[in-house]
Specification:
With 293 residues, the protein is of the alpha/beta class. The protein is built from ten helices and eleven strands. It folds into two domains: 85 residues, Rossmann fold; 130 residues, NAD(P)-binding Rossmann-like Domain (Rossmann fold), CATH 3.40.50. The strands form three sheets. A six-stranded parallel β-sheet has the order 1-11-8-7-5-6. The chain has a three-stranded parallel β-sheet with strand order 3-2-4, sandwiched between helices. Strands 9-10 form a two-stranded antiparallel ribbon. The model has no long low-confidence stretch (mean pLDDT 95).
């Protein structure tokens, strides 16, 4: 009889990481070192973006980081937003900076991200940090892929030599994830996306399947092999007749796929908390590099 799959509990692991960081921050204080400082820029009043930033600020409070939240109206010009980024780049007290995406249509997200100093880019989005993934001494890793890597390691899941299939080729998740799994974890990697013909013929080969497309319910039970490790990065709001008016759904049909998997992430509570934990780890790393070299 097949045993029940293990749930990759991102909330628990993220909590463990936050506890470890909190202890390190307390040690820094005792030794007279500077406490890490994370700044966040939020443009407009999008509800989802406000929630994401609120959760990041809460995490900073939990571990004892200093934090700054800079809020601007949706009407802010690109030039003024770039000037705000410049001020934070030049502020010696700030160790990490995140600009919450998406930005309004009249502002180039790519231009704003590239304006962030790579040493403070704790999302790991700048070209310098992105390109360094494949080096022996990477800079700041993209937060979500880094979080997935850490989640797999904390559950002692064998990655070396395994076939990892990634569905989704975005610059923020799929593409950097493929580099991390290949260059740093020595997995055999196949990268697919929503336009891949006969997608199931690839996903069925995966020892480790990572899905990041934003297409709710894309992966069905007949698309994975028995015993696969399944990591669901997607999270979408689906209208529902409940108090909130919606439910959160991942890219994987969780209840359908769960019986075939050996390990699987829930949505929510899987990858999301690990992304925030990674932001904290990246901020701690940035602070070390700036002040304790």
């Amino acid at each position: 009889m097949k045993s029940e799959p293990m749930i990759l509990d991102g909330r628990k692991v993220a909590g463990d990481i936050q506890a470890e960081i909190k202890t390190e921050v307390e040690n820094l204080k005792q030794q007279g070192f500077k406490v890490p400082h994370l700044a966040a820029i939020l443009v407009g009043d999008d509800g989802a973006s406000q929630t994401y930033v609120k959760n990041k600020i809460k995490a900073c409070k939990n571990v004892g980081f200093e934090y700054s939240l800079l809020q601007y109206p949706e009407s802010i010009t690109e030039a003024k937003l770039l000037a705000a980024v410049d001020r934070i780049n030049e502020d010696e007290d700030v160790d990490g900076l995140i600009v919450q995406l998406p930005l309004p249509d009249h502002i180039s997200g790519v231009k704003v991200i590239e304006h962030i100093s790579s040493s403070k880019d704790v999302d790991g989005f700048t070209n310098e940090n992105y390109g360094a993934i494949t080096s022996k001494r990477p800079g700041i890793m993209p937060a979500t892929p880094f979080g997935i890597q850490e989640l797999l390691k904390r559950y002692k899941i064998q990655i070396k030599g395994k076939h990892c299939v990634i569905v989704g080729n975005s610059r923020t998740v799929g593409a950097p994830m493929s580099s991390i799994m290949s260059f740093h974890e020595n997995a055999t990697v196949t990268i697919c996306h929503i336009y891949t013909e006969d997608l199931a013929s690839f996903t069925r080969l995966a020892d480790i399947l990572i899905v990041a497309t934003g297409k709710p319910g894309l992966i069905k039970a007949d698309m994975i092999k028995e015993g696969a490790v399944v990591v669901d990065v997607g999270i979408s709001r689906i209208e529902a007749d409940n108090e909130r008016g919606y439910v959160l759904k991942g890219d994987v049909e969780f209840e359908e796929v769960k019986p075939k998997a050996s390990y699987i992430t829930p949505v929510p509570g899987g990858v999301g908390p690990m992304t925030i934990a990674s932001l904290l780890l990246n901020t701690l790393k940035a602070s070390r590099q700036r002040h304790q070299s």
